[in-house]
Design a protein that fits this description.
- The N and C termini lie far apart (69 Å).
- Strand 24, helix 15 and strand 25 form a beta-alpha-beta unit.
- Helix content is 30%, strand content 25%.
- The strands form six sheets. The chain has a nine-stranded mixed β-sheet. Strands 4-3-5-6 form a four-stranded parallel β-sheet, with helices on both faces.
- It has 17 helices and 25 strands.
- It is globular.
Length: 524
Amino acid sequence: MPANQNLFVALRAAFPADLDATAVESIGADGSTQYYTWADLDKASARIANLLASLQLPMGARVAVQVEKSVEAVALYLATLRAGLVFLPLNTAYRSAEVAYFVRDAEPAVVVCTPAAFGWVSKIAFQAGTQAVYTLSDARSGSLLERAAHHADTHTPAFCGADALAAIVYTSGTTGRSKGAMLTHGNLLANATTLKDYWGWRQDDVLIHALPIFHVHGLFVAIHAALLGASKMLWFARFDPAAVVAALPHATVFMGVPTLYGRMLAEPGLNRAAAAPMRLFISGSAPLLIETFRAWQERTGHTILERYGMSETTMLTSNPYGPDARFGGQSERRGATVGFPLPGVDLRVADAQDQSLRAGEVGGIQVRGASVFGGYWRMPEKTAQEFTTDGWFRTGDVGRVDARGYVHIVGRSKDLIISGGFNVYPAEVEGVLNELAGVQESAVVGVPHPDFGEVGVAVVVPRAGTRPEPEQLLAALKAQLANYKIPKHCVLVPELPRNTMGKVQKNRLREAVSGLFVSAEARS
């Protein structure tokens, strides 16, 4: 009989021999601390798994979860895996119309929500045929834990093959209907073991976990690596820059989005002494400004490791932690790049005909490997569109690979601006803009234009205490870029709209400036 490929089995096998050791130190907003041992994680997830088993659900039934961050929510995730069910994390910012869409689409057998949301969530769920709705608060309470307390604290994990579905992660849906990326036990385990090895995880590591857990970054990348490494976590329900900086002397690894690094740089307590015990700072989920990269080096003496991944693939590339023998032993972490393809990941840059391009040429990034998902939930036609005939997944990202093998992300294909027949990649223009005096950060979006079809508009956040002239910024760009790449308009804003993972919401920016070059007659 083949071995059980249930991801939980691999995670549980990595727990340390001393199950009474602290696995998670949860730090509250008021400074209070709650300690969880490895035995606590095992027993709590077993009780919840037994509760789920008591519902007699078929293998592969979905468990939709929209709760605040807590260690108990992690136990629920582990319980779902060990019960052979499918975990469906939902962003806590979603409101009724969005939740209704996900529930109708995924048809979960179980929904877990916050106590405050039970009234409207349960109505949506039961109307869609959900069998059970439980509540879970971030204060270690709720009907889920109350019901689970009546069940045994031991549980035999369900048998799963590597191709068994483990999670469905919905994409943001900013350009249309949200798609559910189906990730298998094999997908998640392959990526987790690769990251454990590539990033050098050790049992004496201590991870600062300050990310949300409804997203690939916080749920899969961070938690899987810590569990496989038998590494303790310092757990923050919400990111507090001062509290995280204060925790640095007691930790070794931090994972964050660029916004978190920017906020920590504003803390006076961030210095080389505070960061001395740390061995690794990792950034992802959004592009890291080269200014932030350099400022972090100067303040802490550490070089941030930037990596790249997607909901459909988990992690794909990483700047090296140590020498990478596949690329001549190179170990430099280079700003404005996302490093090399991870071991086990094939990556190519291709043209519109899916033909590989040479080093330095810009095209669509395509990948394949054990961590790449099999398709979108109940969207076979969309799945077929996103894979090439020879099995490569079209990521939708545009980039290039330089002569040394480093991957550079130029932008999203949907963000590509075709102006007068020429391709303009916003990330390239933003990179130059962000280096200009008085610019904190920027975003370039395409809008309709009567002559060129589409042109770029630069949206700029000024540096504190400055107010650069938009026309001067555009003039400075003309000295460094081809004329067709120059935005036709520039506006100053106090901040860029971002989602919960720190990604700039360019769809909102496009909507705000879409009528700039449209005549009054056309608008009417």
